[in-house]
Design brief:
Helices cover 34% and strands 26% of the residues. By secondary structure, the protein is α/β, with parallel strands linked by helices. The structure holds adenosine-5'-triphosphate.
């Protein structure tokens, strides 16, 4: 199967504008590809640039140079040079993202937060709510919490709402930033199973997992981000 996303010669240098413009090279020459039906994992020690890569792939951080070619609407888009509206369209249609923390919307209940991405894409509100409920039940979120805004939920409860929201759509590419960090063993196992289902559905996943057991259970390939480190002597 041809890849759905190809990264080549990707580099990121942060410029610290409030520190006299100090340049901090983090990634030089990253190269890898994501394939349908597989889960790749970004590996390497803390601070090596795993989150920075994930954020560039979602368009949150601008790359300094290189290419991120994504198969999108039957064509190909380079995320590095794409217009903001193209990036928004990519997020709508092609690239999903489960962040580490839920962005809580005041006064919106958990079930509606999970259903929202489907409603936005035109799914009937009742069907979307049913699918949201199925996911929340699967992730063991007590039904009495479904109508409440998650602001007061525990860290693990918020993370499960976030996972349900990220998994409810059918994006062909799914980025996962430590989705199991605050979960207990039972719920980690549910997420591992949900990732396996996405793979069977042909989704290409890329994630950061500090939990070794989860990583071993889901990873088809490990991308060693330390191999993309800039040459400090030359920098
Ligand atoms: N917005 C930013 N501005 C300046 N420096 C940044 C920014 N984001 C990340 N960095 C720096 O880039 C380097 C890589 O950070 P990043 O979060 O990508 O690493 P990581 O491999 O995901 O680490 P961890 O495993 O600890 O989460 C760090 O030295 C960090 O300080």
């Amino acid at each position: 199967m041809p890849p759905v996303l190809v990264v080549s010669r990707l580099a990121k240098t942060f410029t610290m504008h409030l520190r006299g413009g100090i340049e901090l090279p983090v990634i030089a020459n990253a190269a890898f590809a994501l394939h349908p039906g597989t889960c790749a994992v970004l590996g390497g020690p803390s601070g090596v640039g795993k989150s920075s890569i994930l954020k560039m792939l979602y368009g949150n951080y601008a790359a300094s140079s290189g290419r991120i070619l994504v198969r999108h609407r039957g064509g190909e888009v380079d995320l590095v040079t794409a217009e903001p509206r193209t990036i928004l369209d990519l997020r709508r249609e092609t690239i999903g993202y489960v962040s580490q923390f839920l962005r809580v919307v005041p006064r919106v209940g958990a079930l509606d937060i999970v259903a929202e991405p489907l409603v936005e894409r035109g799914t009937d509100r009742r069907d979307a709510a049913r699918r949201a409920g199925d996911l929340l039940a699967r992730l063991n979120l007590p039904e009495r919490l479904w109508s409440l805004p998650p602001a007061t939920f525990s860290g693990g409860e918020q993370q499960r709402v976030n996972i349900a929201r990220g998994f409810i759509t059918d994006h062909p590419i799914l980025l996962l930033d430590e989705p199991t960090a605050s979960l207990d063993a039972a719920n980690r196992a549910v997420v591992v199973e949900m990732i396996a289902e996405k793979k069977r559905a042909g989704v290409a996943l890329l994630g950061i997992f500090h939990d070794v057991e989860v990583r071993n259970a889901v990873a088809d390939v490990v991308i060693d981000v330390a191999g993309f480190a800039p040459d400090r002597k030359a920098a």
